[in-house]
């Protein structure tokens, strides 16, 4: 693409590179199978068509919208590093094209109109010069802000994570507070008038793996009409001086423009830890900007909720801690919640576990977090696979066809002991893949995996969390 040096319309991209780019993305979309990526490809195709037809305003909007979806695909889709690198490179090309179209459109809008007669030529020349200098300054600042805003667009969760409140076991107080802050003000705005205002800052803290981020996913799913920003320190921290605090400012401005909105900051302690004399000025400025934007004089944050999550709440700056009006302890689940978690993580996997078995697992998994239970279940799901790998004998059984449950088949094979009636000496490599019947997960499998796994939270962690809760928080 050529840099424009005059006021003639920028040349449209040639057809062959556009086709090649679309083909590259179609290959990536097969690997990633993401709706966001396919949407981006469709928008790029439309953008290049409008670009060729010299509809530059429409093309600019489509390019920028497409880049948002590409950034979303990179952040939230599962894909290979090669595909990510390819998409990033294409995003740069489309952003460059968008910047050139924007510069051309700005020139067309700000083209000076000559006055008739020319009697006040000197004054007009001076006025035009001032306007030109002012517009030049605007052009320098505006693209910089737009670039930051487009970077923040990648933090917007466009596709809901599909986690319902019912998928979160326990944590009733935390769910109630989040509903008060997010769901109820949107559905019943007349309830929140005068002195009754929704929460503007909620901090979720607790040991690792207790469901803080999972709760945030539920909020993103349930808050249908809200814009959800998922932010990490890498989204805001920059090596360039002054850019990090600008990103913080732009984040809150964008959230305010997109109201109602939720800013979720995972591992918030990495951004706003306690201030000290030894830290550098850039870090101090970022923390100061956060303080001002969350609850500063002259800043209107109505309709914006800041939702933070951390494993080390005592490391937060005291001023930031105060701005999180609700500080909710997301502790280790109780026996009933643990039993529900075992059931949720097993999902629709074939199993012969009963309700009594799930209750027993809940009681035997004391001190396990939700993440620990997920690991136990994942290991138990592999137990039937290990049985198949280690088996030296198989036997035929009768079972419904896996594709059509109304048809019974009698040629399925399952692993068995050498002395079992009908046992045949076989290995899994000698069996036709269609004839292997996957064994159900048993209680024995679950107990074996539970015994081989250990809780990830120690007594010191619990003691620190308990002290912080008694000083500043509340139980979730």
UniProtKB/TrEMBL annotation:
The keyword Hydrolase belongs to this UniProt entry's keyword annotation? yes
Query: Is the keyword Membrane assigned to this protein?
Result: yes
Specify the MIT domain's residue ranges. Answer: 33-112
Annotated membrane-spanning segments are: none
One GO molecular-function entry: ATP binding
The cross-references to CDD domains, in alphabetical order and at most eight, read: MIT_VPS4, RecA-like_VPS4
Question: Per its UniProt record, what SMART domains does this chain match?
Answer: AAA (SM00382), MIT (SM00745)
What are the record keywords, sorted?
ATP-binding, Cell cycle, Cell division, Endosome, Hydrolase, Membrane, Nucleotide-binding, Protein transport, Transport
Task: Give the protein name, as stated in the record.
Answer: vesicle-fusing ATPase
């Amino acid at each position: 693409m050529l840099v424009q040096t005059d006021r003639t319309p920028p040349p449209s991209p040639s057809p062959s590179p556009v086709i090649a780019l679309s083909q590259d993305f179609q290959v990536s979309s097969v690997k990633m199978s993401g709706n966001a990526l396919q949407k981006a490809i469709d928008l790029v195709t439309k953008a290049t068509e409008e670009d060729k037809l010299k509809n530059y305003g429409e093309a600019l909007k489509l390019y920028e919208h497409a880049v948002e979806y590409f950034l979303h695909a990179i952040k939230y889709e599962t894909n290979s590093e090669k595909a990510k690198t390819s998409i990033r490179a294409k995003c740069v090309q489309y952003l460059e094209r968008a910047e050139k179209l924007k510069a051309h459109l700005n020139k067309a809008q700000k083209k000076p109109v000559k006055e008739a007669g020319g009697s006040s030529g000197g004054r007009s020349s001076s006025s035009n010069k001032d306007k030109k200098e002012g517009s030049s300054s605007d052009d320098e600042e505006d693209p910089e802000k737009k670039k930051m805003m487009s970077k923040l667009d990648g933090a917007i969760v466009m596709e809901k994570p599909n986690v319902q409140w019912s998928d979160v076991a326990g944590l009733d107080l935390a769910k109630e507070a989040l509903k008060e802050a997010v769901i109820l003000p949107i559905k019943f705005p007349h309830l929140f008038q005068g002195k009754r205002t929704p929460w503007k800052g909620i901090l979720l803290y607790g040991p690792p793996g207790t469901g803080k981020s999972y709760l945030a996913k539920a909020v993103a799913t349930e808050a249908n009409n809200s814009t959800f920003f998922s932010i990490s320190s890498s989204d805001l921290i920059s090596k360039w001086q002054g850019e990090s605090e600008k990103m913080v400012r732009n984040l809150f401005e964008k959230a305010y423009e997109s109201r109602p909105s939720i800013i979720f900051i995972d591992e918030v302690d990495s951004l706003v830890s306690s201030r000290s004399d030894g830290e550098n000025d850039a870090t101090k400025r970022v923390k100061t900007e956060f303080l001002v934007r969350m609850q500063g004089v002259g800043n209107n944050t109505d309709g914006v909720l800041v939702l933070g999550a951390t494993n080390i709440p005592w490391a937060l700056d005291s001023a930031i801690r105060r701005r999180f009006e609700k500080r909710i302890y997301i502790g280790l689940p109780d026996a009933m919640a643990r039993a529900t978690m075992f059931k949720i993580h097993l999902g629709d996997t074939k199993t012969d576990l009963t309700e009594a078995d799930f209750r027993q697992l809940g009681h035997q998994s004391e001190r396990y977090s939700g993440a620990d239970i997920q690991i136990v279940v994942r290991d138990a799901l592999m137990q039937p696979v290990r049985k198949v790998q280690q088996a030296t004998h198989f036997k035929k059984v009768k079972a419904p066809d896996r594709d059509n449950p109304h048809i019974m088949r009698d040629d399925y094979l399952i692993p068995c002991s050498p002395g079992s009636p009908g046992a045949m000496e076989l290995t899994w490599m000698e069996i036709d893949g269609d004839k292997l019947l996957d064994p159900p997960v048993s209680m024995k499998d679950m107990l074996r995996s539970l015994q081989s796994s250990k809780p990830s939270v120690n007594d010191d962690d619990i003691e620190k969390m308990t002290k912080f809760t008694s000083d500043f928080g509340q139980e979730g």
